UniProtKB/TrEMBL annotation:
This is Quinolinate synthase. InterPro entries: NadA, NadA_sf, Quinolinate_synth_A_type3. Pfam families: NadA (PF02445). Its cofactor is [4Fe-4S] cluster. Signal peptide: none annotated. It comes from Streptomyces halobius.
Length: 354
């Protein structure tokens, strides 16, 4: 549905009043009505860099989810304030690894006598606490666009990796991009004693994968791939690496949101694509390329939006911008100093990856 013209006008007016004081970042999974007001759009890697690249902006309004706003706060200056227009915009995957659970896991690895060989690699989609744990234990953050480089780096530092919290990105990168076998990976289940693993299994594993997943991407199935291939002959299947391993193995191409966009930009006219990632982005791409004769469909018609990404809508954005324009800071995301210093270490290791 088209946006309420009154709200559009109010967002424009508040943004104009704030001028250079405000910088609005929009993740690719955001609604069209929000993307319209983003000064920059990107995947989580690009947005982390872009937030850090605007030291002049007093307010960073982050249209995305909580962990992204935390990362922006960690990477921006102390006098910059990061605003998340709806505090309920979390990420179910990030919530699957808590600081207590990860500390307990480290104790298990220590008990098994392997902690010294383990380098933590945490996906951007994790809380600031998990990023701090990662920094403290010599590890790095990664995103879906640099996971291979992060793992290459980690295996130069140690013989094993603890990959948090997305088991699928960890497994897909290890097996698809680095030539490891499925047997090199074990899954640590935080809800079971010792992660549900024996000390021997831990000693044999190269990749210890945290048992987390994305509730949106985890729903694409091998059936979705088979169905779309039957329905659209010649279709190219392009999926995000948060999808299950069997889906990624059956796909033609795999990549982050930025990679998906670039691939479609470069695709020849007449080509057909089935995309396995969040629906807001897929719809936007389908519309954008419709007049270039590129057929773009959603990989599985039963998978829905990321409900927490969708919480940031135009009314929330207008409220945040108007509050700031009136001199009132709302929904500020602020990571405490101790957590920030270790989390920053891990994020900076990522930003320094070759
Ligand atoms: P990217 O934009 O880094 O591909 O991340 C996908 C995602 O799920 C963010 O929540
Ligand atoms: Fe989290 Fe998945 Fe939503 Fe991304 S798409 S914010 S990983 S639940």
């Amino acid at each position: 549905a088209p946006s309420d013209p009154d709200l559009v006008e109010r967002a424009r007016a508040a943004k104009a009043k704030l001028g250079d004081k405000v910088f609005v970042l929009g993740h690719h999974y955001q609604r069209d009505e929000v993307i319209e007001f983003a000064d920059v759009t990107g995947d989580s890697f690009k947005l982390a860099r872009d937030a850090a690249a605007r030291p002049d902006a007093e307010y960073i309004v982050f249209c995305g989810v909580h962990f992204m706003a935390e990362s922006a706060d960690i990477l921006t200056g102390d006098d910059q304030q990061v605003i998340l227009p709806d505090l309920a915009a979390g990420c179910s995957m990030a919530d699957m690894a808590t600081a207590e659970q990860v500390a307990e896991c480290w104790d298990v690895l220590t008990e098994a006598g392997i902690a010294e060989q383990v380098v933590p690699v945490s996906y951007m989609n994790s809380s600031a606490d998990i990023k701090a744990f990662t920094g403290k234990h010599g590890g790095t953050i990664c995103t879906s666009s640099n996971a291979k480089r992060a793992l290459d780096w980690a295996f130069e530092q140690g013989a094993k990796v603890l990959f948090l919290p997305d088991q699928h990105l960890g497994r897909n990168t290890a097996v698809r991009d680095m030539g490891m076998s499925l047997d090199d990976c074990v899954v640590y289940n935080p809800h079971k004693p010792n992660g549900g693993l024996t000390a021997e299994q831990l000693r044999d594993a190269k990749m210890i994968l945290w048992r987390g997943h994305c509730s949106v991407h985890g729903r694409f199935s091998l059936d979705s791939v088979d169905d779309v291939r039957a329905r659209i002959p010649g279709v190219n299947v392009l999926v995000h690496p948060e999808c299950k391993h069997e889906v990624v193995a059956a796909a033609d191409h795999v990549g982050s949101t930025e990679h998906i966009i670039r691939t479609l930009e470069d695709a020849p006219a007449g080509s057909k694509w089935a995309i396995g990632t969040e629906l807001n982005l897929v719809r936007r791409l389908a519309n954008r390329f419709a007049d270039q004769d590129k057929e773009i469909v959603f990989l599985d018609r039963t998978v829905c939006f990321c409900s927490t990404m969708n919480r940031i809508d135009l009314p929330h954005l207008v409220w945040a911008l108007e509050s700031l324009a009136a001199g009132k800071v709302v929904n500020r995301i602020e990571v405490d100093k101790e957590t920030e210093s270790f989390a920053k270490l891990a994020l900076e290791r990522m930003l320094a990856l070759p």
